[in-house]
């Protein structure tokens, strides 16, 4: 049966993007509900957040007169060919797919050719993440915590030992979706993303004995019954106190920025802020926020998980002591469970590395001592 072509109106895109920003459903649940691909949802959410300022007095760039609809019946006139060809070289797959206009006189087949897209891509209908895939992703997450050096091949072999029939490429695909990779030092470490500056690691041999000397942050994967979300947390290095955290159904920068702003508003300003080299942390928005507050930026060596070891230990505690025990059904349940656990983690849970004290005790006692001395 021939598939019906779909042309998403602006109101529909806004509805989907707002649902994604609301954050009470996973990306898989939103994709199934609205019958659109998760990549499109992420793209529309980013467009909504990027253009939100225009609603409150921002200015939009003037429209390009070449992008007006042609008045002649010719379908392959040169301006449209130029515009689509440029799009094919400038945008990613999701961006190029979003350029397809099903109401335009130029046939979808020809638009796909100019955008260098497979025609099947234009008619693809997303399917929800299967229960089998979600179970595999959760098990991969558990194995990754236990063996952070394991790559797709080793994880495949570990899964096969447990009776799972799976290939290396499938494991690698699921790892990319989860945002995890084997943690080991790789060759060509000096290569940098051409658009994002990467900063040196500043914590080597540095004595960190007081709160707000160094903050660290990272993102981890949280499995749910139907999909997954991402957890971002800001940690004070000396006291192990979690200063702020956020959940998101998309792996974007906005929820990281929100958590950092929250920590800065309530807990002061650190001397150094340490992260890995993820694109969320090397983005101009993230580094610009830190530089605006006069904070030195430190980044782990690529693949060097030990450079941010305290955050890795936090993830292990959260998952083994909370997430895996409760198997959240919804985003709301995950938020409630993590809020309950992180309150316990900060205020009640004794830490052996802190001589049996809690992170709150170490954090606030040291702040009080410094203020008294001053």
Task: Write up what this structure looks like.
This protein has 374 residues and is an alpha/beta fold. Helices cover 49% and strands 10% of the residues. It contains 16 helices and five strands. It has helices at residues 10-22, 27-34, 38-55, 78-90, 93-98, 108-115, 119-122, 131-146, 152-161, 168-178, 254-267, 279-282, 284-292, 309-326, 331-347, 359-373; strands at 214-224, 227-236, 242-248, 272-275, 296-299. The chain has a five-stranded mixed beta sheet with strand order 3-2-1-4-5, sandwiched between helices. Helix 1 (10-22) crosses helix 3, helix 8 packs across helix 10 and helix 9 (152-161) packs across helix 10. Residues 61-78, 86-91 and 185-193 have low confidence and may be disordered.
Write the layout of secondary structure elements.
Blueprint: H1 10-22, H2 27-34, H3 38-55, H4 78-90, H5 93-98, H6 108-115, H7 119-122, H8 131-146, H9 152-161, H10 168-178, E1 214-224, E2 227-236, E3 242-248, H11 254-267, E4 272-275, H12 279-282, H13 284-292, E5 296-299, H14 309-326, H15 331-347, H16 359-373
Parallel strand pairs: 1-4, 4-5
Antiparallel strand pairs: 1-2, 2-3
